[in-house]
Amino acid sequence: MARMAEPLALYVHWPFCVSKCPYCDFNSHVRESVDQAVWREALLADLRHEAGLLPERTVGSIFFGGGTPSLMPPETVAAVIAAAEGVWGLTGDVEITLEANPNSVEVANFADLAAAGVNRVSIGVQSFDSEVLEFLGRAHSEDEARRAIATAQEHFARVSFDLIYARPGQSLKAWQGELAQALAFGTDHLSLYQLTIEPGTRFATLAAKGDLTIPDGDTAADLFDMTQAMTRAAGLPRYEVSNHARIGQESRHNLAYWRYADYAGVGPGAHGRRLAQATERHKKPENFIAAVEHNGHGLKVESDLPAHERATEAMLMGLRLTEGIDLARIEARSGLVREAFVDDNAVARLAGQGLMRADGDRLAVTDDGILLLDSILSEVVKTH
After folding, report:
1. Smallest Cα–Cα separation from 314: which of 245, 262, 366?
2. pLDDT of amino acid 3
3. Judging by beta carbons within 10 Å of its beta carbon (0-12, 13-18, 19+), is residue 56 exposed, middle or buried?
4. Which end of the chain is more exposed for a tag (fewer CB within 10 A), N or C?
């Protein structure tokens, strides 16, 4: 019963963007026109289908992701929130986040989005440098970015924004100045991502030709270390690999992912984890709409997750967090004993090297170990 009492996280995907960024591998699409009424009804039908499979739950967080959800009509956002409240009920302190771009046309919707029920916004700033914004294919200016943050702070109780660093040719001094600007806004949350070359993106094509080179491992590590020092000093310590917040201002929705709680995913390409099942929706917008019209939902994949796979996923997600994982919780959720999914000898060795902390059922990667996370996971997590 304790598990059923855990609040549910709801993810809603809006797949449309004004343009496609060259580094982006998310499920985003550019369309000349969008039939808003059709999309509103499709999202509501998809949500109702999930609600029928997850009865007697309350929703603790809703996250509108994309794509560019700030392109959603506020009436659609309000309808989705109202539907979630109607079929599940919302916790009294529900966190409702919407991802937004800083373009002025979208920022003009902030007041209406707040009135619709959104109480947290995450803004895709990425940089305060006009040349970098052009390089990243962003459609906003540095002035628009600053105005968007200021406007968001007027309308929403909680504001976060994203920056991308470890870019080609970026110096420590340049990043120090840019991060200082970001911290000066006084938001309670920042997402700071090192640029990675994702397969299938335009940046991947340029990198393959030798026309794009990101900083080497040592330089990236220096940039990361400086990021940690500056955010800690400003009272926004890292709580996950790339996410920083004042204590108590962490993204509760993303914590649900990393702590391996149940979450329902609706909308094109949305993934979910519910009651030991993995779900995935049709990615292409037209295919999603066709599936909803034919089946009453947009599901493409619905599969049972074996106990060991659930335990492994919980390990891989949870060790990204500064707080680490609760092994007793993973045992309870998977039905396995820890020896089935944790290599205790590896944990002891890595703890001796200062790369992990082990305290009873609590296991975490240290600050010294976080840059080696992938190799630590490969040693500690028993995958079969």
Report:
1. 262
2. 40
3. exposed
4. N
Q: Three-class SS of residue 280?
A: strand
Highest mean pLDDT among 57-71, 205-219, 313-327: 313-327
Token duo for residue 360: 């009873």
- Give kind and range of the element (H or E) at residue 95: strand 90-100
Q: What is the largest CA-CA distance in the chain?
A: 59
Q: Same domain, yes or no, for 67 and 210?
A: yes
CB atoms within 10 A of CB 11: 21
What b-and-e string marks burial along 269-297, b requiring 16 or more CB atoms within 10 Å of the CB?
Answer: bbebbbeeebbbbbbebeebbebbeeeeb
- Give the total number of structural domains in the chain: 2
Report the distance separating Cα 111 and Cα 95, nearest Å.
17
Q: Contact at 8 Å (CB) between 144 and 182?
A: no
Strand 238-240 and strand 189-194: pairing? unpaired
pLDDT tens string 78-122: 999 999 999 999 999 999 999 998 986 688 899 999 999 999 999
| Helices 307-318, 327-334: crossing angle, 10 deg rounding | 150
Same domain flag for 78 and 148: yes
177 and 313, same domain (yes or no): no
Task: Give yes or no for a contact between 128 and 182, defined as CB atoms under 8 angstroms apart.
Answer: yes
Same domain? For 42 and 170 the reply is yes
Q: Which two tokens stand for residue 203?
A: 């940046």
**Which range of residues forms the domain containing residue 46?**
2-258
Helices 172-184 and 217-233 pack at an angle, to 10 degrees, of 30
Handedness of CA 130, 198, 148, 165 (dihedral sign): negative
Phi–psi pair at 315, nearest 5 degrees: -65, -50
* Residue 202 identity: R
What long-range pairs does 20-24 form, CB within 8 A, spacing at least 24? 20/137, 21/136, 21/137, 21/138, 22/136, 22/137, 22/201, 22/202, 22/203, 22/206, 23/136, 23/137, 23/164, 23/195, 23/196, 23/197, 23/198, 23/201, 23/202, 23/203, 24/198, 24/201
